[in-house]
Design goal:
This protein has 286 residues and is α/β, with parallel strands linked by helices. 40% of the residues lie in helices and 25% in strands.
């Protein structure tokens, strides 16, 4: 089986575009199309829906993707193990973080690691905790700095992070030391990242209620602006807070609502990722 064709297919799916996949892999779009067409001929069914907006996997293709990702992960692990036997470093480590405040730690750790393993490339990506957890399980990332999600193969806790209520300074609740969680069910709510699973949606699942959503935005700074304008209240992780934003008070909840943040990784890591894990275990941020 030609794994290079599967790599091309996954790149097209992950980028959502044949052109984007071609640019990243330094091949032509026609070459990408021929590769996918060869796979489709071998398998006897279509793998991609093609449209002006890009490409998406067919239902048949979706059924294959977990096995394809496992195949390519096994190949990468084999190649790295062979390189290790030869005494060489190789491979790429992908690290995801859901929290901007950890970029400095990740980049400093990467720089220190590469002084010992110069042949290993490191790629840093971002996303929500749930997005990155899914990418980890699909072998699209090797490590993720996220809030805890179920089914993480390996979990190294770092800290407990508190969820804070964002209130207009003129709001009656802003005078309280802590906002009763019951009030979260009735106050006009500004939702950040609608349609995505976040720590905030998990909070409302825990409270067994839905927020009284009046506004939504994909930009947390826009959330603060709407709260400041008196349009409603919202919630943000303390680790991502924007302390001192004009017109906004950040207040804890009563009882406190905590999310555990940690470093997640898979099992049976490739040698490069295993070396990185051993390197960081004694250097996890406080």
């Amino acid at each position: 089986m030609d794994t290079e064709r599967w790599q091309i297919l996954l790149k097209a799916i992950d980028r959502g575009s044949l052109r984007a996949a071609a640019d990243e892999m330094d091949v032509t779009v026609s070459g990408i199309s021929r590769s996918v067409a060869t796979l489709e001929k071998e398998l006897g069914f279509s793998l991609l829906y093609r449209a002006k907006s890009g490409v998406q996997p067919t239902e048949e293709c979706r059924q294959l993707l977990p096995a394809v990702r496992e195949l390519l992960f096994a190949q990468e692990r084999l190649e790295q193990t062979a390189a290790k036997v030869r005494g060489a470093d190789c491979g790429t480590i992908v690290i995801g973080t859901a929290y901007n405040c950890y970029y400095e730690w990740v980049t400093c750790m990467t720089a220190a690691f590469r002084t010992r393993h110069p042949g290993v490339a490191v790629k840093i990506v971002n996303g929500t905790s749930s997005e990155l957890a899914e990418m980890l399980l699909d072998h699209r990332t090797d490590f993720c700095l996220i809030s805890r999600r179920s089914a993480m193969p390996v979990w190294l806790p770092i800290r407990q992070d508190e969820l804070l209520v964002l209130l207009p300074k003129s709001h009656p609740l802003a005078a309280l030391d802590a906002v009763p969680v019951q009030r979260m069910k009735t106050e006009p709510f500004i939702e950040s990242y609608p349609g995505m699973e976040t720590d905030i949606t998990l909070l409302f699942d825990k409270l067994k209620t839905k927020p009284n959503t009046s506004y939504s935005t994909m930009d947390i700074t826009a959330t603060y602006a709407m709260v400041s304008a008196g349009l409603g209240i919202s919630v943000n992780n303390a680790i991502n807070h924007q302390h001192g934003y004009p017109g906004v008070v950040e207040c804890p909840m009563n009882p406190p609502q905590l999310m555990e943040i940690g470093l997640a990784c898979g099992e049976n890591l490739a040698p490069a990722a295993q070396a990185f894990l051993e390197f960081v275990k004694s250097r996890l941020p406080e």
